[in-house]
């Protein structure tokens, strides 16, 4: 049997700051990773008015199952009148959102301090204009 780890090696770390739960996702968000991360995100989004920031900067790859995970989290958070913000400066991820018609579905910020700042969702407003 092969003792090498699988290609998918996503993991997450969670912390709190400025009243938000920050989840840093690391590695690849593919089918194998999503099955491992789903329960953790479901638990975080099960509360009333969840305020979640997903830091995607350490993510090296995302496929359709990873996008599905993000959409599920967004849906659960909206149903509970909460807020989800994504943090990424990767142009490839923003392009992926545009190509799939999801650019207006998420509040996207280039860095963590901007995502944690109070105020209007700047990236969503900018995406709606473009």
Outline the secondary-structure elements.
Layout: E1 11-17, E2 20-29, H1 31-44, E3 51-55, E4 59-62, H2 64-79, E5 83-87, H3 91-99, E6 107-109, H4 112-116, H5 122-129
Parallel strand pairs: 2-3, 2-4, 3-5, 5-6
Antiparallel strand pairs: 1-2
Helix pairs in contact: 1-2
Any overview of this molecule?
- With 130 residues, the chain is of the alpha/beta class.
- The protein has one domain (12-129): STAS domain (Transcription Regulator spoIIAA, 2-Layer Sandwich), CATH 3.30.750.24.
- Helix content is 40%, strand content 26%.
- The protein is built from 5 helices and 6 strands; from the N terminus they run E-E-H-E-E-H-E-H-E-H-H.
- Strands 1, 2, 3, 4, 5 and 6 form a 6-stranded mixed sheet that branches.
- Helix 1 runs parallel beside helix 2 (64-79).
- The N and C termini lie far apart (51 Å).
- Mean pLDDT is 85; it is low at 1-8 and 120-130.
**Unreliable runs, pLDDT <50, ≥5 residues?**
1-8, 120-130
The major beta sheet can be summarized as: 6 strands, mixed
Look at the helices and sheets and give the structural class.
alpha/beta
Architecture per CATH nomenclature, i.e. the level-2 architecture: 2-Layer Sandwich
Reported by name, the CATH topology is Transcription Regulator spoIIAA
Helical element count?
5
What is the straight-line distance between the termini? Answer: 51 Å
Any idea what the radius of gyration is?
14 Å
Characteristic key phrases:
Transcription Regulator spoIIAA, 6 strands, 5 helices, 6-stranded mixed β-sheet, 130 residues, single chain, alpha/beta, disordered N terminus, 26% strand
């Amino acid at each position: 049997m092969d003792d090498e780890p699988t290609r998918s090696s996503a993991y997450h770390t969670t912390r709190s700051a400025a009243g938000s739960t920050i989840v840093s996702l690391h590695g690849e968000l593919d089918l194998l990773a999503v099955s491992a991360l789903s329960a953790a995100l479901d638990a975080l989004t099960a509360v009333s008015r969840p305020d979640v920031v997903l830091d995607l900067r350490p993510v090296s790859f995302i496929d359709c199952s990873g996008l599905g995970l993000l959409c599920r989290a967004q849906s659960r958070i909206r149903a509970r009148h909460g807020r989800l913000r994504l943090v990424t400066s990767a142009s490839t991820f923003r392009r992926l959102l545009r190509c799939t018609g999801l650019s207006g579905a998420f509040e996207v910020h280039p860095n963590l301090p901007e995502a944690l700042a109070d105020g209007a969702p700047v990236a969503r407003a900018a995406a709606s204009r473009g």
